[in-house]
Amino acid sequence: MSCFSCFSPHRKGVSKVEIDNGTRSSECGRGKGRNVARSFTFRELAAARKGFREVNLIGEGGFGRVYKGRLDAGQVVAIKQLNHDGLQGFQEFIVEVLMLSLLHHTNHVTLIGYCTDGDQRLLVYELGRSSFCPGRETLSWDTKIKIAVGAARGLEYLHWKANPPVIYRDLKSANILLDDEFNPKLSDFGLAKLAPVGDKTHVSTRVMGTGKLTLKSDIYSLGVVILELITGKKAIDCSKRPGEQNLVSCSCRFLKDRRKFVRLVDPLLQGHFPVRCLHHAVAITAMCLLEQPTFRPLISDIVVALEYLASQSDKPDPHRAGVHIPFLASPSQQNRDIFSQNSDCRMSSTST
Questions:
Q1: Catalytic site residue 117?
Q2: 316-328: per-residue pLDDT in tens?
Q3: Structural domains in the chain?
Q4: Residue numbers belonging to the annotated binding site
């Protein structure tokens, strides 16, 4: 995959790029220290995944299939092949190429290459150990917070370092890949959108006929992921009875009452978690899920709060009240005011 735009390592943000009907304009491949994605032929990738063998299929969705493959050098990779009649068209493919080429961050999946032979559209990227799946395996409290911190850092890079800001739009547990040490990496940028430069507190735009799309929509999605981590449950579980399938809807009554926070905790933890950190984690989650997007916190504040929880999670709870985390002492007075009243705020069961 070619680099559609590159940026100097001395800059804080990425260079501005333009997408218009599948075309792109920028300088390519000149960023020192950057890995320029490799262009593969379809034959090379077919050989790498051994000719579409079902045994190598590791994922499937509306966009297409993802196969496990092995390159000539022996590197094990994930190869995403788009359906010709799938939901992701050429422009969405270019968006994903763009995002993966430009957005270099520890908590983003690394793009290795791409293929555009004829009507073929394939992406080659690093293969994680697995995606985060609530309830699939027992995770310690520290590991859960580690995943939350990494996901938030990856999102912070999109919202605050990229220029223009990037709206991820598809943050969910299935798109958070984990390595052997449970370090999370955001993947699947096919639905990501470039947001207009402006007030990063609340950016809104109309995109592709989908209605209002804001950075605060990503904050809601992050709140859902953190709630999945806390509870060990899926955001949507169709195996449950109607009325019990939506995790946010079922959790609202607990999110609004501090005395009930403990009832949200993943039972697989068997009580091994710091109660004080749980209270703060649930409070952060509740703020992310607020019905009014403008009331949701900034991603930078969320990162500070989660990093603090990660540093405190292995310490005993203090026998005193009124302990505050940096989230509440941030420059965002609005966040402090809303947090103090979060028990009276309405939470949304759907992202806006």
A1: no
A2: 554 333 444 555 4
A3: 18-127 (3.30.200.20), 131-344 (1.10.510.10)
A4: 80
